[in-house]
């Protein structure tokens, strides 16, 4: 989609889901998701990757931001409402392919490496992971809205042939708490991280996309198995609700599914007996599902996020933000609007 000759390259949600950023061929825009409104717009040069820190206008961008001839190896950190005033410029040895944030860490992904910076003092990386699979899905922990001192996990697939996932806490001064989980038999396609109280949750989907498994971290206990369907279909994006009570998933067929996740406490997450092999191991069907507008179907860049406990937002690289209202009492989704982000 074009707007005055400016093509949409991609879109990204802020760490808390309240802001969506739109990467344009010539510019970058930020919109509040609920209620929907324009927050900021800047006529930058090409923005290839972006991430946004919580509700603020603090952005981390990569691309030919200031010069069309500049290589895509510079990461810019700053407030786009303050024209030309970048707080930091980080030089990366390789072209940047993806950016991500936790509360304390900035993750810079390249074709073969993952660079981790302290977001509050990003002069040099505190850790570099090599080799890093070019096609590996990457997920970061969404901030807990009730507990600020909890771990901030990141997770990514370790193999192109089996469903092995690496999880660790990148919080400075150095990464720690490393665990490896055998999530699926086939390669992992999509990962999501969230919270249930003070227990971290991780959802994984393989390339077949029929089953989503949910684990409690750091123990790696499987707490739920969710069935999307019986036919193979890639899951493009997943997200936990702010309380961890529900998980939403978007498929390549253009369907949005909501699954109910059982409550997890720190006590029962420590145990691999009882409900973990009983009620929690029963396959869960979605409590509701809808078909997305055709413009979102099959788009690789389609992403889903909860803006709040009752608002689910789906954004596509075609430039549409689709907003649904979720009612947990009736397990229903109501279309609230389709916004053009171009």
Automatic annotation (TrEMBL):
InterPro entries: PROPPIN, WD40/YVTN_repeat-like_dom_sf, WD40_repeat_dom_sf, WD40_rpt
Keywords, alphabetical: Repeat, WD repeat
Keyword Cytoplasm assigned: no
Gene3D superfamilies in UniProt: YVTN repeat-like/Quinoprotein amine dehydrogenase
UniProt keyword annotation of Repeat present: yes
A single GO cellular-component term on record: cytoplasm
Family: Belongs to the WD repeat PROPPIN family.
Stated name of the protein: Putative wd repeat domain phosphoinositide-interacting protein 2 protein
């Amino acid at each position: 989609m074009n707007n005055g000759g400016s093509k949409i390259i991609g879109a990204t949600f802020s760490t808390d889901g309240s802001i969506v950023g739109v990467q344009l061929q010539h510019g970058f825009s930020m919109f509040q998701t609920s209620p929907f409104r324009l927050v900021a717009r800047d006529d930058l040069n090409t923005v290839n990757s972006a991430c946004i820190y919580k509700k603020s206008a603090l952005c981390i961008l990569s691309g030919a931001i200031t010069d069309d001839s500049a290589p895509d190896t510079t990461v810019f950190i700053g407030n786009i409402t303050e024209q030309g005033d970048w707080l930091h410029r980080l030089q990366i040895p390789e072209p940047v392919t993806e950016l991500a944030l936790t509360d304390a860490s900035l993750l810079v992904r390249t074709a073969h490496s993952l660079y981790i910076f302290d977001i509050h003092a990003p002069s040099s990386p505190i850790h570099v992971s090599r080799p890093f699979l070019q096609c590996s899905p990457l997920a970061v922990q969404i901030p807990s809205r009730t507990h600020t001192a909890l771990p901030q996990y990141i997770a990514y697939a370790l193999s192109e042939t089996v469903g092995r996932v690496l999880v660790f806490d990148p919080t400075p001064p150095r990464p720690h708490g490393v665990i490896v989980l055998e999530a699926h038999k086939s390669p992992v396609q999509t990962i999501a991280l969230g919270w249930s109280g003070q227990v971290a949750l991780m959802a994984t989907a393989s390339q077949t996309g029929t089953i989503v498994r949910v684990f409690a971290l750091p123990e790696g206990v499987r707490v739920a198995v969710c069935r999307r369907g019986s036919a193979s279909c890639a899951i493009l994006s997943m997200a936990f609700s702010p309380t961890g009570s529900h998980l939403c998933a978007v498929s390549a067929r253009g369907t949005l599914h909501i699954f109910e996740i059982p409550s997890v406490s720190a006590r029962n997450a420590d145990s691999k007996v009882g409900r973990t092999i009983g009620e929690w191991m029963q396959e869960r069907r979605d409590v509701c599902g809808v078909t997305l507008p055709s413009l979102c179907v099959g788009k690789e860049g389609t992403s889903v996020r909860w803006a709040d406990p009752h608002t689910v937002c789906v954004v596509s690289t075609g430039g549409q933000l689709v907003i649904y209202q979720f009612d947990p009492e009736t397990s229903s989704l109501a279309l609230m609007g389709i916004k053009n982000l171009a």
